[in-house]
Each structure stands twice: as structure tokens, then as C-alpha cells.
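Case study 2.
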Amino acid sequence: MAKTAGAAASDRAAAQAHFRTLRLGTPFQPRIDALARTQDWYNWAGYRAPHSLWDEELEYFAIRSQAALFDISPMTKYRIEGPDAEALLDRVTLRDVTKLKPGRVHYTAWCDDEGFVLDDGTLFRLSLTHFRLCSQERHLPWLLDSAIGFNVTVEEETEAVAGLALQGPTSFAVLRDAGFAGVERLKIFDLADFPHDGDTVTISRTGFTGDLGYELFLPAGKALSLWDRLMIAGEPRGIRAIGYTALNRARLEAGLIVANTDFTTAEHAIRTDRLRMPDEIGLGFMIDLEKGHFNGRRAILEARAKRKLRNVLVGLEIEGNIPAEHAIVYHKKAREVGLVSGAMWSPMAKRNVAIASLARPYGDTMVEDLWVEIYAMRELRYQKLMKRAKVVARPFIKLDRRTANPPADF
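Prediction:
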């Protein structure tokens, strides 16, 4: 029997529903949606996240001159807990986890057996046997396989735990005015628990901006009350919510890298020449050869001994003021030697800066005559510009207030 017109329309709507399915919302989504004037969204790990909320330029200056609130809930988060949690994490990550004390955080990375970087992230030691690992990509199957034989529980808690980054010179004052007594005792990379709305919020003195700042984690059900608490307390201090574009500019100035932007993770690399060892992306400092065996140890040592490290991630200073985003880097305007992964005119450093992956030995500071190929829009036409570049140290800016102890009261 033929369907009625109404039933047919209903079937068509159901069949097309998957095209209209929105990205996931974070626990803070109602507050973010209310502030989203630009309606400029992107997909962050399946979540609907803002490139900007009101003005990407002013959002950047909110980080550098007041306090900026950024939703980091989509960041992948794992709870790793049990008697062997320390041993497992020491086995799979580069740094010595036995040196990480409860109430501390460190930046680390982890590799496959061939020594290629799978991802980087932050490891929070919440207690002797309880850790939280935060990363860009998802690694649950790999972590579960790695945990075989260890007395440990590994669970993803991305949806259950909401996260906020509060960054900028007035961030400490906002937290203090919000009633988080004792937050002034947190040194860089410290963490502590504070009461909030009948529950607990974990606050760490960490961030991705190179500025004074904090990250806050709490159960998803208490997210909105935390947002409101911070916004009310922060109004006299100029608190503003921001999107990713502003955060990305701040992290570039700080010389910080992003997985699958500044380097391709081992699980995402299609071409073998895209694989990178820690030494090739500036993470060699993490490798602790005095601890026991860890993933990739033999391959990393062999690459160092046999000089197999073919690439290096560097900071560049470029003439002019036009950002060299995704520019090709040349030696003597002839030989292609690398690619820019992130670039900006830095308002703080007053320099045109970039992060680039270069073939060795062209990333050496002694190498001269480097050029970048920039395509700039002029009078509605793209014009190719060849601009001089030189290798410089990262970070491009270094703010004393980031590590000042006690934190400054702006």
C-alpha cells in the first residue's frame, strides 16, 4: 500500500537527519552560544567549538591585557588509576614519571616502538595512584593495550570532565576574587583541589598561551555554575570569553606546538617522510635515558648515534609584516628545504614570526640565505613575495608574569 504524503515526507526527513546532526556541545555550550556573535565554528574532536566569539583581534588582546576564558572541554582526557599507574605511564611516556609528585603537572610526549611521536600532552598527578592524561588525539585502544600486565584502570573521561582555560595577567586576581582561597600558593605547574558548588574543581597553574594562567577541571554537571562564578568575579578585571584563533596566536608567540599542525602524529602520517622523532620537533629535552625502558627508546638512541635525524622544528623571523602561513622555505631561493606550519605578526614581539619544519642542516642557526615564499593579496590579485628568513630561538616572547611567584595582582 502506498504511503501517504505525510509519511513519505517523514521518511525523507529521517533519512536525511544525519546530514543535519549538529556537532556535540560541551557542558559550557549554553554560555558560549549566547556570546557567539560571529557564529564562526569548527570541529574540535567532534565538538562544536568557536574560531572566534566576537572579534578575533580583540580576543587575542584580552589574553595579553586582561583575562580570557577558553573552553577546553573537547580536549581528550584519560583517567589512569591504580597501584601500577606510575609504572605504566613511565613505560609509555618520555619523561620520568617517578619524579612527578602529587599535586604537579608536566608536559610530555609518547612514541610508538619505532620512536615516532604519537602525540604530546599534559600529565596531571592527582595523587600517588591517580593521574589524568590530556592530549590532542584519542589513544584509548593503544593505552589499553599498553596497560596489559599492569594493575591499573584506564578510562576516557572527556565527556564527564569539563575544562576551562583562564589566561592573562588578571587571571589570578579573577580566581582570588571568585573565592578560591589559597590559589595564590600555586606555582607554575602546581595543581590543587578547591570546593565549588558542593563539589570539587581542580585548578592547575598551566596553559597554552605563555602567559600567567590556569586550567580548571570539574564534573560536567557543575560547569555552568563555575562559568557564572568566574564571569561575575572577573567583570571588574575585564574577563572575556574567546575562541581558538586568539588562543592560537598566543601559543605561536610562546613557541608552543600543536599535534597534526606543526607535526604529524605517527598514527596520522600517510607518508613515511612525515613521521617525526622527539628530537625532530623540539621535544628531545623530555627524553630521560636514566629511567627504565620506554616506548621507542632503542630507536631513538639508534637515530641519535647513527645521525638519522633528518628534520628539525625551528622558529623563524621573517622580514616584513605579512604572515608566512604555510609558506615554503627555500635556501638561496632555489632549494626547497621546509614548510611553515604557523605564522603571525606578533604584536608583543613586534616581529614577523613563524614555526617551520626544516630539513637538516638548514635548521641550523649558522645557515644563512633562507627565504620564504608568501602569496599576498594586493589589489584583488595574489602576488608572490620572496622574503628573507632567519632561524631564531623560541619562545618569541617570554613574560615574567607567567612564572612570577606569588602571581602578580593586576
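The chain has a mean pLDDT of 95.
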